[in-house]
Amino acid sequence: MPDLPQAAVPKKGDVIDHAWRPIIKQPLPAGRPRSWYIAHNRRLKAMRLAIALLDAGAFGAEQATDEKIHRTAEIVGVRPPSPATCRMVRRMMEARR
Predict the structure, then answer these.
(1) Do the beta carbons of residue 83 and residue 50 sit within 8 Å?
(2) Residue 2 counted as domain residue
(3) Distance between CA 49 and CA 55 in Å, rounded?
(4) Which DSSP category does 6 fall into?
């Protein structure tokens, strides 16, 4: 699989015409407590898994079992999620915003 060109982080008001491309990773802000970084990375992982589950056709939180979330993590290429991350994935999928 060829390397895809990475997209820059969009500025406010920019049109996103390349949502399928990964964005350039930005360094996290320094000086925060360790718990903030752990929670931040858990939210990112849960969001990535929730999006993958939605793309795979699991549209409800009741369809996102721990086993399905773990299989999706393997497909996406992330480490197996903890039970807390699985709960967060289900909460994200049931949120109505």
Answers:
(1) no
(2) no
(3) 10
(4) P
| Distance between CA atoms of residues 34 and 40, nearest Å | 10
CA–CA distances in Å: residue 66 to residues 22, 80, 91, 96:
26, 10, 13, 21
Mean pLDDT across the chain: 82
CA distance 56 to 48: 12
Residue 81 lies in a domain: yes
Amino acid in position 95: A
What is the arithmetic mean of pLDDT over 27-37? Answer: 93
Question: Structure pTM?
Answer: 0.71
Number of domains in the chain: 1
Given a contact cutoff of 8 angstroms between Cβ atoms, the answer to whether 30 and 60 are in contact is no
Q: Residue 41's domain spans which residues?
A: 34-94
